[in-house]
Amino acid sequence: MFEWSKTADGEWLCAGVAIAMPVSAVLGSFDPDAVLDSAERSQAGRFLKPEDTERYRAAHGLVRRLLSAATGRNPASLSFSRRPGGKPFLVDTGSLDFNLSHGGGWVAVALSRSGRIGVDVEADRPQHFWDEIAASFLAPSEIAASAIGHQQIWTAKEAALKAHGAGFAIPPESVTVTAEGAGFAARLPADHFSGVWRRLGDGHVLAVAADGSVPEIAVCENAGDLGAVLAELSRLDPAMRASR
């Protein structure tokens, strides 16, 4: 499913992966409340709209299940903190970086042991929406000429800024996105990320960016797909690498 490489120390690593799944499929695969902590369950209950509650439960439940598979730890026991720029990280896990996003009817989680990674998923919007806000996020060169659509540029920038860790403390108009092969390059004022897009089945766009190799994407449509991804990610567990 994922492309693996072997380090000089004999460890098996996957450069970076993003897993996308419909909210309804996540909620139909397992009960997020069984793995969320009390603060997350409380936060889920504060949303006024049921769909916002469902997106939050699905996203935070999915990230716990995936991180559990990658670390070999109980999903309900995982502890999180935040870096100075606000990016969450998993306590006591060394080099494992992760990021999550939810938009419209989809959630996405990105994982990497080889560097920083970020992900963004957005529901399609009418072109006039992007035209109205284009000046607030396009770089001068992108305004002058770009073969990439506004939604793709936006998702690439958000994924790169989330990978960086500073988020929108860095103005999006200072980030330049260009097509590179089948994916994109996102150049920040003092940083650079490579990424790839994926159009999801029902009007959503996913972008994932990393500072290492171009990440891979897995789309899970049901519990069976998720189970296969969890089994593959379990190979990231140091206790299992030795037997590979």
Automatic annotation (TrEMBL):
Q: Keyword Nucleotide-binding: yes or no?
A: no
Q: Name one Pfam family in it.
A: AASDHPPT_N
List where this protein forms a coiled coil. Answer: none
InterPro entries according to UniProt: 4-PPantetheinyl_Trfase_dom, 4-PPantetheinyl_Trfase_dom_sf, AASDHPPT_N, P-Pant_transferase_sf
Q: Where are the transmembrane segments?
A: none
Transferase found in the keyword field: yes
Residue limits of the 4'-phosphopantetheinyl transferase domain? 116-207
Query: Keywords assigned by UniProt?
Result: Transferase
PANTHER family found in the cross-reference section? L-AMINOADIPATE-SEMIALDEHYDE DEHYDROGENASE-PHOSPHOPANTETHEINYL TRANSFERASE, PHOSPHOPANTETHEINE TRANSFERASE
Q: Which family does it belong to?
A: Belongs to the P-Pant transferase superfamily. Gsp/Sfp/HetI/AcpT family.
What name does the UniProt record give this protein?
4'-phosphopantetheinyl transferase domain-containing protein
Organism in which the protein naturally occurs: Shinella yambaruensis
